[in-house]
Amino acid sequence: MRSIIVGVGNPLLGDDAVGLEVARMLKEKGYDAKEAIAGGIELAEMIAGYDFAIIIDAFHGIGIKEIDIEEYNESVANHDISFPSAYKILARYTKMPEVKIIGIGVKKIEVGEQLSSQVEMAIPAVIEIVEKLMEEKNVA
Predict the structure, then answer these.
(1) Spatial distance between the Cα atoms of 73 and 28, rounded to a whole number of angstroms
(2) CA-CA distance, 121 to 44, in Å (whole number)?
(3) How far apart are CA 47 and CA 4, in angstroms?
(4) Which element (helix H / strand E) includes 54?
(5) Is 101 in a helix, a strand, or coil?
(6) Which of 8, 44, 13, 12 is nearest to 24 (CA)?
(7) Angle at the Cα of 82 from the Cα atoms of 75 and 130, rounded to 5 degrees
(8) What confidence tens digit (pLDDT) does each residue in 70-84 have?
(9) Residues paired with 34 in a beta bridge
């Protein structure tokens, strides 16, 4: 089973970059992990052709949660056309994977290149969730 992990975010907007950081860490562990600064169509194109994809992104809120694909609108940094729309469009023309979206809650997004300590503390739990999902799909 071909799988991919994509961390979404903006490296210049503090906590919004948490998905990028998680993707970097998972890549170092040997996973096929990529970073996406844009969303919508670019994100959908990145996962096209895979069997399984995990997307990691920040959301306005608290904690870590799985976000339903229909509710995923990349609202923290409002990247571009919505991912659900792009996914549906591409699915007409190419194989699209099963998708799990893991959201990491952030209180506010500010210009800066560092994650808050609260968001940094959530990273190990997110990595554990991703590794468990990959194991369940027999791709670990």
Answers:
(1) 28
(2) 29
(3) 7
(4) strand 52-60
(5) strand
(6) 8
(7) 70
(8) 877 654 445 567 888
(9) 6
Two tokens at 92?
A: 């007409």
Pairwise CA distance, residues 127 & 138, whole Å? 16
pLDDT block averages, 10 residues each, the chain of length 140: 93 92 96 89 93 94 88 58 88 95 87 88 96 83
41, two tokens: 């169509």
Model pLDDT, residue 137: 85
Tokens read off for 1: 């089973």
Inter-CA distances, 5 with 36, 57, 81, 107, 118, Å: 10, 11, 20, 24, 23
Please state which architecture CATH assigns to domain 3-136. 3-Layer(aba) Sandwich (3.40)
Task: Return the structure tokens found at 24.
Answer: 């970097």
